[in-house]
Amino acid sequence: MFPVFSYVTFFFLLLSFSCFPARIIPGSLTELTVDRHNDTWRFFERFLDTGKGSHVSGMSELKKYFQRFGYLPVPNTNFTDVFDSRFETAVMMYQAKLSLPVSGKLDSKTINTIVSPRCGVSDTTPLEDVHETRHFAYFYGKPRWARVPPMTLTYSFSPEDMIESVNSSEMKSVFERAFSRWASVIPVNFTETEDFGSADIKIGFYSGDHGDGEPFDGVLGVLAHAFSPQNGRFHFDRAETWTVDFETEKSRVAVDLESVATHEIGHILGLAHSSVKEAVMYPSLSPRTKKVDLKRDDVDGVQALYGRNPNFKFSSLMESDISSNRAVGLQIRPSRWATTLVVVVAFKFFLWTR
Ligand SMILES: *[C@@H]1O[C@H](CO)[C@@H](O)[C@H](O)[C@H]1NC(C)=O
Ligand SMILES: *[C@@H]1O[C@H](CO)[C@@H](O)[C@H](O)[C@H]1NC(C)=O
Ligand SMILES: *[C@@H]1O[C@H](CO)[C@@H](O)[C@H](O)[C@H]1NC(C)=O
Ligand SMILES: *[C@@H]1O[C@H](CO)[C@@H](O)[C@H](O)[C@H]1NC(C)=O
Ligand SMILES: [Zn+2]
Ligand SMILES: [Zn+2]
């Protein structure tokens, strides 16, 4: 047992120095230090600066978080409060996936990312890791909507489970814009239908346990989740302060509806979480932040599933994105092999623990 851990740990340590230099951006430490009184996950701040060997009461709760998002297997017994080698490996996998410096410790960047609100969809599943690279990813089996082209998917709002704070005309235009961003890059059309029962994509706002085994958790924490193709369920946590305009909504916990909608449509179409921080498909989103424009990583991922919309031109979409990617890409390219190794080692680790 022990040699395997050391082997895995060794690889991660090795790679942490060689793989991710492009991600260490000076001055980005402050990005998530918002005031978080009582929010879901704030409790985890107590684990700041802990590492292997630490024993802090409540650590088992953090292990549950890691398990929930795909970094730890379900244990045979309850999780302990000890920061053991298995947890260290999970922390490293998390750091690699979220493009944080891979230290294996709960440093401030890592804790800030952990407590930051995010999507409820798991980042990795044991088998999915094989397909994963350091950019976009798919769900296991690479599911997609299989329709004869030209493809049109219908969406509908739940007749019962909507919110009052955003009126129906605003709601409709938010989703129209979010769907049209994806439709502009792939040959798929989205149209709204009044018939919720028969719609391909079913949108609603729910509180707590709402019957799909993925209960929502109140203010911040998990914001929303959506299912992979061809399921179409598209759920938002009703407890959030969903906002269309930060000028009129001053709450510190306000969350941009359109940004989260755009992200979840990516899941509906078959994209899993990306490691590219700027991408719409990155798992976390700070409160009071708008992130609605598809990045090249999102576009490449979805076009690999559905092909390219004939009217789509890269040049018009994202000049700045492409140039910034080029700068980062140069540094990342030599480590592609190393990245594959991380994935394979992680995969073996999971197989071995099953
Ligand atoms: C924090 O949560 C506790 C219990 O959930 C509640 O009693 C308290 O009023 C909350 N405090 C704030 C500042 O929201
Ligand atoms: C796990 O913890 C729960 C609640 O603390 C306890 O009821 C249960 O007996 C524990 N199970 C094991 C296998 O230790
Ligand atoms: C989408 O709708 C537009 C306008 O109605 C139409 O021209 C186009 O062919 C449609 N594309 C697909 C893939 O259905
Ligand atoms: C919906 O809300 C927006 C912004 O708050 C407002 O401008 C618009 O008039 C409202 N529409 C309806 C139908 O109430
Ligand atoms: Zn997500
Ligand atoms: Zn749900």
UniProtKB/TrEMBL annotation:
Q: Which domain of life is it from?
A: Eukaryota
Which residues take part in binding Zn(2+) 1? H210, D212, H225, H235
**Would the keyword Protease turn up in this protein's UniProt record?**
yes
Provide the leader sequence positions. 1-21
Hydrolase keyword on record: yes
Active site at E264
Q: Where is the Peptidase metallopeptidase domain?
A: 141-308
Q: What is this protein called?
A: Peptidase metallopeptidase domain-containing protein
Q: Which species is the source of this protein?
A: Vitis rotundifolia (Muscadine grape)
